[in-house]
Amino acid sequence: MKKSDFFYNLPEELIAQTPVEPRDSSRLLVLGKKDGSIEHRIFRDITDYFKPGDCLILNNTKVLPARIYGTRTDTGATVEFLLLKRKSETDWEVIAGPGKKAREGHKFTFGDGLMNAEVLEVLPDGNRIVHFECEKNFYETLDKIGEMPLPHYITHKLDNPERYQTVYAQINGSAAAPTAGLHFTPELLDKIKKIGVRVSFVTLHVGLGTFRPVKAENIEDHHMHSEHYSLPEETANIINETKKNGGTVFAVGTTCTRTLESVATKYGEIRADEGDTDIFIYPGYEFKCVDSLITNFHLPESTLIMLVSAFCGYDNIMNAYKIAVAEKYRFFSFGDAMCITDRI
Predict the structure, then answer these.
(1) Residue 67: left if φ>0, alpha if ψ -120 to 50, beta else—which one?
(2) In the chain, at which end, N or C, are there fewer CB atoms within 10 A of the end residue's CB?
(3) pLDDT, tens only, 5-35
(4) Radius of gyration of the chain, Cα coordinates, nearest whole angstrom
(5) In this predicted model, what pLDDT tens digit does every residue of 242-287 receive, in sequence order?
């Protein structure tokens, strides 16, 4: 298939700039996995689609305040670093801007000396490997000096940075939020559990490659970015018991889906695992674990709209997006949600 097959027209005013309050009051488009039928609901109505014995799998990664501003120690030139991926206890892969001010051996200071850094290596794609030093805990220091890196299509300043975190975010490491999870509240999760649904977690640290455009017209020529994941034994057991007993596995978001499908593809089953994945899911892929998917509305021509097209069928997805635009749903990170399920 071609990249252009996944284009759709989206009026700019439908790109959500701010989150709705409360979290679970966003709209929910429920899409029939087999027949493409559609229901229009509110997100808190998601409980109507669960049954006892199901499981709900969430990504508990936590977004870092990964954008930091500093100066080069020898010239005083200003620089911006965006932390992408942790490589060791002290070293990170970063995007540096402007790049000409951050070459190998250059040293920097951030937060009036709270954090210092040196560029170790310039990678072929222009990213840098940077060594960081700080007197106190790295993440505590980052909380003091860093800013939340919102996606490029969000131009409004976020008053409360916690609104770009899920309520269950726990493990530091992401450069972007797993945004399908932003709709859940603690109360809604409790209500889901009371139905008899088991709630468990995976971790996939979301990289900015999530927003990187597909450049190849033939989508099979596109190479996915790599992201680190962890699937705990408890979660693997819950998924396997759910499957064994005829329940439905609900995955929240494309990051959660990529984690589960990566492990299922790697081993032919779900088991505890940790590693890096660059799995690229597009139409023709046979899903091995995920039964129902809760997700947001994704950018035209992105790998994410390709993934949901694989899950529900290309024609069903493109029709649903056309209807969502006509019905003025809110799109992207702070936008409304979609639940793709057989239970409609």
Answers:
(1) beta
(2) N
(3) 999 999 999 999 999 999 999 999 999 999 9
(4) 20
(5) 999 999 999 999 999 999 999 999 999 999 999 999 999 999 999 9
Instruction: Name the amino acid, one letter, at 336.
Output: D
Give the Cα separation of 28 and 286 in Å (integer).
Answer: 26
Going by C-alpha positions, the residue among 231, 237, 233 that lies closest to residue 258 is 231
pTM of the prediction?
Answer: 0.93
At residue 273, the pLDDT reads 98
Contact assessment for residue 310 and residue 282, using Cβ atoms and an 8 Å cutoff: yes
Given this chain, do its domains 3-63+160-341 and 67-145 carry the same CATH topology? Answer: no
Residues with Cβ within 8 Å of residue 226, at least 6 apart in sequence: 207, 209, 276, 277, 278
* Whole-number pLDDT of residue 211: 66
* CATH class assigned to 3-63+160-341: alpha beta
Report the greatest alpha carbon distance in the chain.
65
What is the identity of the amino acid at 106? H
Q: CA separation (Å) from 22 to 19, 145, 165, 183, 207?
A: 9, 29, 14, 8, 27
Residue 192: pLDDT over 90 = yes
Structural fold of domain 67-145: Thrombin, subunit H (2.40.10)
